[in-house]
Specification:
single chain; 200 residues; alpha/beta; Maf protein; 5 helices; 7 strands; 22% strand
Length: 200
């Protein structure tokens, strides 16, 4: 069994809120997740080309700095017509160009297909040789314009064709039930249960 106080290797307020909601619905009793920024841990660099490598870097950094088990999320938006961009550069692209920058980059492209990716990495300690990895994907399209007030990041642009809504138009519960982050978190929790790392 691992300790019931984990550090979330992120200072992103939106992510922290989503993980709090996912944790509340996970059935794990007594587990506390604290954002690394609340523990005085600064972000580490993310030099790699894949979500998995960057997620592992962030998890080990947070665990090393706090001595706690660490959960890291590296996630982003993959747009087909842009050759997979912004991908691992999603946060940096958004900061530099905003959602409108993505619409401008797409221009009049007829292929609007895209998907969110979330790679979760859990380490028991900084040198953990067998980290837990879980990947979730949420397939959809890039809307023609921004729509909705909920969520964060690219949510106003990401259209779920099945619901006919952007992620920013969904309630938190709707989004968590369908999202890349919700799927990855459910898979990671199931892995931990199977390994006997925690119980419900």
């Amino acid at each position: 069994m691992v300790g019931l106080h984990w550090v979330l290797a992120s200072g992103n307020v939106g992510k922290a809120q989503e993980f709090s909601a996912l944790l509340a619905g996970s059935g794990l009793r007594g587990l506390r997740l604290t954002a690394q920024s609340d523990l005085g841990v600064s972000a580490t660099d993310e030099p790699f080309k894949t979500f998995i490598e960057n997620g592992l870097r962030k998890a080990r950094h947070a665990a090393e700095q706090t001595g706690l088990p660490a959960l890291a999320d590296d996630s982003g938006l993959v747009v087909s017509a842009l050759g997979g961009r912004p991908g691992v550069e999603s946060a940096r692209f958004l900061k530099a160009h905003g959602c409108q920058g993505l619409l401008d980059a797409l221009g009049g492209a007829t292929d609007r297909s895209a998907h969110f990716v979330c790679c979760l990495v859990f380490v028991r300690h900084a040198q953990d040789p067998d980290p837990l990895l879980a990947v979730g994907r949420w397939h959809g399209q890039i809307a023609q314009s921004l729509c909705g007030e909920q969520g964060f990041g690219y949510d106003p642009l990401f259209l779920d064709p099945e619901l006919g809504q952007t992620a920013a138009q969904m309630s938190a519960d709707q989004k968590n039930a369908r999202s890349h982050r919700g799927r990855a978190f459910a898979a990671l929790i199931a892995q931990g249960r199977d390994l006997g790392l925690w119980s419900s």
